[in-house]
Amino acid sequence: MVNYSVTKIVFSFIIDFRQGPCYKEIKDLRCQGQVSTLVCTKELCCATVGKAWGLPCERCPAKPVPCAVGYLPDYESRECLDIDECKAVPGVCGENGKCINTVGSYRCEKCDAGFKYDDQAGRCVDIDECSDRQTNRCLNGRCINSVSSYRCVCSAGFVLSSDGTLCERRNECSTEGDDCRNGECKRTETGLRCVCDIGYFYNPSLRRCEDVDECEDGGLICENALCINTQGNFVCQCKEGFVPAPSNRVKCIRHVGPTASPATSPNPPTTTAGENGCSRVGQQCENGVCARLNGILRCRCNAGFTYVQGKCIDEDECQKDSAICQNGLCVNEIGGYRCECAAGYVATSDRKRCQDRNECSDAQTCTNGQCINTVGAWRCTCNSGFALSVDEKSCIDIDECNSIDDVCMNGRCENTPGDYVCRCNTGYTLSTDKHMCLDTMESQCYASYSNNVCSQTLFRPLTISQCCCGKDNTAEKLRAWGSPCMACPAPQTDIDECSNNVGAQTDLCLNARCQNTNGDYICDCNPGYRSTANRKECVEVNECRENPSLCHRGRCENTPGSYRCVCPKGYVFDSRTKGCEDENECDNRDQCIGGTCINNMGSFKCQCPQELTLHQSGRYCEDLRQAKCWRMINNLGNCEDNVNGDVTQEVCCQTLGKAWGSPCQRCPTTEKCQRGYAYKNFTCVDINECTSFPGICRNGRCLNTLGSYQCQCSEGWTLDESRSVCLDEREAVCYQTVTRDECTKPVRGMYKKDMCCCSVGAGWGRPCVECPLKDTREFDELCRNNLGQRKKYDECTLFPGVCANGECVDTSESFLCQCRPGFALDETDKNCTDINECQITPGLCGNGTCINIGGGFRCNCREGFKNAPMMMEICIDVDECDDLSNPCQGGTCVNTIGSFKCQCPPGKRMDPSGLMCQDINECVENSFTCPNGICQNFMGGYQCACYTGFESSDDMKSCIDVNECETENGRCEASCQNTIGTYRCECPPGLRLQVNGRTCADIDECVETPEICGVGNKCQNVYAGHECICSDAYALSDDRKSCIDIDECVSNPALCLNGECQNLLGSFRCICPEGFDLDQRSSVVICSDVNECASSQTNICDRNAICMNTIGSYTCSCNAGYEKSVDGCQDVNECDADEGSAERCTQNAVCINTDGSYNCECRQGYFPSGDNATCRDVDECTSISGVCGNGKCLNVPGTYECECEFGYLLTTDRKGCEDLNECEAMKEFCHHGRCVNIPGSFRCICNKGFQLNRYNNNCT
Fold this sequence. Notes:
Layout: E1 8-10, E2 13-15, E3 20-27, E4 30-40, H1 42-47, E5 52-53, E6 58-59, E7 71-74, E8 79-82, H2 85-88, E9 98-102, E10 105-109, E11 115-118, E12 123-126, E13 141-146, E14 149-154, E15 158-160, E16 167-169, E17 183-188, E18 191-196, E19 200-203, E20 208-211, E21 225-230, E22 233-238, E23 242-244, E24 252-254, E25 284-285, E26 288-293, E27 296-301, E28 305-308, E29 311-314, H3 317-320, E30 328-333, E31 336-341, E32 345-347, E33 354-356, E34 369-374, E35 377-382, E36 386-388, E37 395-397, H4 400-403, E38 411-416, E39 419-424, E40 429-430, E41 437-438, E42 442-443, E43 445-450, E44 453-457, E45 462-463, H5 464-468, E46 478-481, E47 486-487, E48 512-517, E49 520-525, E50 529-531, E51 538-540, H6 543-546, E52 555-559, E53 562-566, E54 571-574, E55 579-582, E56 596-600, E57 603-607, E58 613-614, E59 621-622, E60 627-633, E61 639-647, H7 649-653, E62 659-660, E63 665-666, E64 677-680, E65 683-686, H8 689-692, E66 701-705, E67 708-712, E68 717-719, E69 726-728, E70 731-738, E71 743-752, H9 753-757, ...
């Protein structure tokens, strides 16, 4: 039903606000494919996905107006705006696709797994994996498609594989070597099989080995005895009068002698000859055991043997499987094989495979190092102080005392295993690492030593090097140190540069420890640094480059003074091996939940039981098998009431189910999560029962809730007792037919849907919906009761007016309509409809229109026809020429079928009424009539009155030209030329027509055209022409009427040599190119070369160039030191780096470019040596007097620096020493007194009552 509302007119547009269903296709003249998520206006439907709209259904226009498909009009802005179909049509790409809006349309992308995009349907549709015959999907089973996936139902003897894609043979046991109860589990070509002990056979239904009843065939195995079965064997009990045969335990012979009791064979038979050597089940045969296989008693071969032509022969496993004995050599043996392993591998206890040999298990391997086992080999990583041997299989001690230069200065070196120690001299202390002798003893330092007297005590104790190695210790003024004091060594003796920073470099031994030596010092580098050749600097060691074995299996990254290992995923850094070693992920208890964790190099894997599947995270096993879910288990243990759709056991048992699977099994009592939740990604997530069990809410809408679900019914529907089925209690109109546009033929009254659709109805409700078709699941759900029986109705009584135009007859299943004459059953067989004779018999009325009437028809005749007398069903022609008096005035009447026509004579035509012939005025209607005369019209025709020079044609309807030249040549003296309507006289060349137009006279060309023969030539007149008399520069033409110029450039090629010859009328001229002049001195005019360099022109070349004449031109060659440029010659900058300036002057000179050359000028601090290329260093210390006052001058390349005396500071430019004001810099001096600064020192003037202390720096 369509909801109508008031339409509004805006800007001349009529806006239709009606709401109705939208259909995606029209098929068989019916609207199909209703968009269930969309009830909208016709405009929106037809502009998006619709082909039809509304109830009754209306076909969408081929071209919507005012906007194209994909757009809607904005009636205020009068613009067409793009429709976002993704929002306007919810679910346009289906539940499993992603809608992306585009301008004027949309597209569906990224269908979920198990779906593909259907261009025709315009959405994501399920992939029927079972229809793909190219794959081995569900091998050994049956493929059943489901939404977004499929499942395999395996044949008998097969089970579903772990990935659920095929069916594998069912293993009879779980682990190779396990006890199979009266047998042993062994691996065969068809999987794990239970190989039963002698006297047992495998029962596949019970999946175990059961006793063979050797006596089941009536005891025929025992001769003259009763066969008694035992577990795994049997015995023969001899009949009375018989005893066991001595050589055959299954045979009893008659007893000779006293009667004895029945004897029993004490042991089972061992041999009985037969075709295959087998006489009973369980008997030993060659390389096997007798067994009944497929009803035949024969030898079942032991492992390692195969049955060929009645015998068990050895099977060559090495040839059968080339991959056997990896990392070794396979050697075949009778009934088996063994592996001879390669170096680095050892055989397993059964000698069936080779496994890595762990060389590191031997304690003697890699002494003084760390042994690292690898697959098939091993390697050593040595401890500090040890190095790899030549064969790299052991670690030997490094003798540091002999390998390290200047080791243990101020002491003695002693080598130890993996290390060394220093034994220090007196006055030195051993460092904490025992690798250095340090000057650490402090004592009193004296600024003056004279005549064995120490004076001027310094203010704090110093080491001997700090005291004696300062700049104040000179030959003129020695210092002293110690208690008792002793004179410091003279300055020429060694200075401890490490402890005395006076004048020392600020960056002394960066990244190292400074170690004083006799007359020098060395840097003992920190770990990760290496000393340079002079041992004054430490450069970083790139451990990654120098030791490729570092960070094995990882990436080594160098860092300042060290390195670090970046290990890949699955590996961790091991400080012992200094490499990346495998991380055992299986130590984490959260790995492989529900399965077995197997660690391997760099990773791990979870091995799930056969019925479980590894989750995509690889960290736990989940059961993805899908099967029926059962709501109930009856008293007999049978499962009942399965839920629609196949689900996993967890989804079933955590929601609606009591049992799961086929055959069904009870749900477990304990689970990881509460009911309504499933375990996913290490957490419990809500189960959506609505998507897991499609149709769980029959006739209603399923609403998922946390841990459960609810069924919601539409208005007019009620939930039944199960709370999962919605019962329709609504009453509405019942329609007997449904067309492509609407529901028609309503039945009087209001009915429930089942009463309507299960009897006479094809559609029901408001809005009308089509009833389900018969033999469909929807029809059975609506029209069958709980017992599955079809609901019965008396349609003739319940539906008044059914079988209109006929009689309703009730039947046991339905009803029949018996129609009246002129009526027939409609397509529903539920009503009698009028037979439309006009439609079923085309052309029934011939020359009339067929009008259908209830139970018959009549003919309405067309104009020109009439009904035959007494017959309204036939139309006959009317003869108007006989019935009408003179219908054609001025013409002839001709009768036609259904009409008549008038025919007019020539010169007349029919007037608009078609009944009268009128005269045609040809002179007025056609202006081209009589073009060479005057047209004269008359009734029924016309004639032409011709002009002078023309004459009338025979029919007088045209004018023909008269040829005057045919009579006396038109009285012309020469020739006559006829023209349309007249003629003209013409004269030959050289003569001119006279004024009378008939005679000709001579033309004097020499007078009328004086230069007709050219300049310098003469003209002579003759009758009807002229002749020329030519000069020497011209030649006379063949007709003697013109003079032809002679081309001197062609006739004399030597003219204008080196130039261009240009011909002129009666002459020629030479055009000389630039660089040549015309030379008329020679016998032939030519172009001679001009010497530009000798001409009076000045500055023809650059002033720094030389001019050189060439034929027709000249060149300028630049002088040395110059190069060619656009403007002339420019100076070459020899000091430019591209010109090799580095080779022209030494590094202590600066190259100065000059015009055409260059000079080398020495840098500041250097002077020239005389060769204009080399500069020598200026020794400022000797050349500048008084330099570095209060300090020492040190000459350095290009300059000098000062080393200041004690009490002086170096200036910022390092070229002078300025006094240190100790009174300002050291506030802790001269307490109880006044500090007075003096050059190079200070003194304290004590207050009254105080005196200088012994260090002279304070008052006490």
